[in-house]
Design goal:
By secondary structure, the protein is of the alpha+beta class. Helices cover 46% and strands 18% of the residues. Helix 6 (103-118) runs antiparallel to helix 12.
Length: 342
């Protein structure tokens, strides 16, 4: 356990470093913070904190910076969440106030607003299509040759693809096909649309109208296609605003990872707790993430499945503000989604 004096000094030093991104010395702490002790005493306490692994000294003549251990102690024992300003709360909630028909749009707006308020990268994991329930199929003619296939689930998610149709098929016939599919599949989890069930549907429909066999085959293929989870990113260029990422090689490696869906899903998939989780620096399993921290929380859609919202930034992240922003947005997101799928 750290003494109260060491706790006070460690908290002041980390807070100062988060704001200014510069090593902090004893005289700086004495001048900027009313700690009630001399620079010499602060220097001795900082030396102890260094030996204990809470601080590091980049250069012999420089001040000190927090270590991974120091950040972990800070977020676990010293930090108090910083309340968002009314303007920041309004920015987050306003992005979701307009009633939106598509969940895709909700996630896009939420991720964008969260990145703007936090000044870091926001990540929101969208629902896994296979774990949703089939609600409705719509076939919308685009012209005489193509139709848009709209698959609507119980969470309001809309998947759309374009399929070619044979010449001479009327809008009335397309509507009849869509209504029959909806009647047969309504209430079926998409993950249960097995090849045998889809083959049965294909046989049933193609027998009724052999002229549309190829169209039915394409339609069944599109129903079976599963894109998996989607992760919505906001503010990836915010990384460039922080001095830790002046090295373009380092930035390229991290941005490259952020373009990989499997990496993003892996980063967010393990979050199941309802509480805020903070992963700092070397706690990340990816080498490219060793100088990053991520603050995550869960939200639900329809009370059935837990998904993840998070903010990614440097280890010198303003944790107190980010925790509040993530917590506020996950509540707003859950409320908005609840309204959509009601």
């Amino acid at each position: 356990m750290l003494s109260e004096r060491k706790r006070t000094i460690l908290k002041a030093l980390i807070s100062d470093y988060i704001q200014r991104a510069e090593p902090v010395g004893s005289r700086t702490l004495a001048r900027r913070y009313n700690l009630g002790i001399s620079p010499a005493t602060i220097r001795n306490e900082m030396a102890d904190l260094d030996e204990m692994g809470y601080l590091e000294q980049p250069h012999t003549s420089a001040g000190r910076v927090p270590s991974y251990k120091g950040y972990r102690y800070f977020v676990d024992s010293l930090m108090q969440a910083e309340k968002l300003t009314p303007q920041e709360e309004q920015r987050l909630s306003k992005s979701l106030q307009q009633r939106l028909a598509k969940i895709d749009t909700v996630f896009y707006r939420a991720s964008r607003a969260l990145s703007e308020v936090s000044h870091y990268i926001s990540l929101i994991m969208g629902p896994f299509l296979g774990q949703q329930i089939f609600r409705q199929l719509r076939l919308v003619p685009l012209d005489s040759q193509y139709v848009m296939v709209l698959l609507i689930t119980d969470t309001g998610l809309v998947q759309n693809r374009i399929v070619e149709i044979p010449a001479g098929v009327s809008a009335a016939e397309l509507d009849q096909i869509a209504r029959l599919f909806t009647k047969l599949l309504a209430g079926v989890p998409l993950e249960d649309l097995t090849s045998s069930l889809l083959q049965e549907l294909y046989t049933m429909f193609s027998r009724r109208n052999r002229f549309l066999q190829e169209f039915f085959a394409d339609l069944i293929t599109n129903l079976a296609a599963d894109e998996g989870e989607r992760v919505y990113l906001g503010g990836t260029t915010n990384l460039l605003k922080h001095p830790e990422f002046n090295d373009m090689e380092k930035v390229r490696g991290l941005l490259g990872l952020l373009e990989e869906r499997e990496f993003l899903c892996s980063l967010l998939a393990d979050v199941t707790s309802e509480d805020i989780e903070i992963t700092i620096g070397e706690e990340n399993k990816y080498v490219e993430m060793k100088e990053c921290s991520i603050v995550t929380a869960s939200y639900e859609i329809g009370g059935r499945k837990v998904y993840t919202i998070g903010v990614l930034g440097p280890t010198r992240m303003d944790y107190a503000r980010v925790v509040s922003a993530v917590d506020f947005m996950r509540k707003q997101l859950s409320d908005t989604l609840r309204e959509i799928i009601r």
